[in-house]
C-alpha cells in the first residue's frame, strides 16, 4: 500500500489498521460511516449529562473521568483516521462532528446545553477546545 503524504481522493485509503478497508467501494463506505459515527459519538459525549445532582462527588468525579478518557480516546482515533490524508475520511469526520453539534449542542432542537445564561445544568464534560 502506498502511503500518501498529501490529501487525495479515492477508495484506496488505509485507516487505523493495515489492510482496512480493503479495495472495494463497500468497505470504503463502511469505513466512512465508522469515522462519522466516531465523530458523532465524541460530540454526544461532549454535550451529555450522565451524572445527577444526587450522585456523590467521588462517584461523579469517577464517571466524569471515565467519560473524558473515552471521549479523548475516540477523538484521537478520529484524528488518526484523518491522518490517512483521504478527503472522504476528512469530510466524514467533519460531518460527524458538525451533525453531532447540530443535534446536541445547538439551539435547533431546543435550548443549547452549553449556553451559560441558561440554568439547564452543564454537561458532564467541558467542550473540546481546538
Automatic annotation (TrEMBL):
<keyword id="KW-0813">Transport</keyword>
<keyword id="KW-0812">Transmembrane</keyword>
<dbReference type="Pfam" id="PF04145">
    <property type="entry name" value="Ctr"/>
</dbReference>
<feature type="transmembrane region" description="Helical">
    <location>
        <begin position="58"/>
        <end position="81"/>
    </location>
</feature>
<keyword id="KW-0186">Copper</keyword>
<keyword id="KW-0472">Membrane</keyword>
<feature type="transmembrane region" description="Helical">
    <location>
        <begin position="25"/>
        <end position="46"/>
    </location>
</feature>
<keyword id="KW-0187">Copper transport</keyword>
<comment type="similarity">
    <text>Belongs to the copper transporter (Ctr) (TC 1.A.56) family. SLC31A subfamily.</text>
</comment>
<keyword id="KW-0406">Ion transport</keyword>
<keyword id="KW-1133">Transmembrane helix</keyword>
<feature type="transmembrane region" description="Helical">
    <location>
        <begin position="87"/>
        <end position="104"/>
    </location>
</feature>
<dbReference type="InterPro" id="IPR007274">
    <property type="entry name" value="Cop_transporter"/>
</dbReference>
<protein>
    <recommendedName>
        <fullName>Copper transport protein</fullName>
    </recommendedName>
</protein>
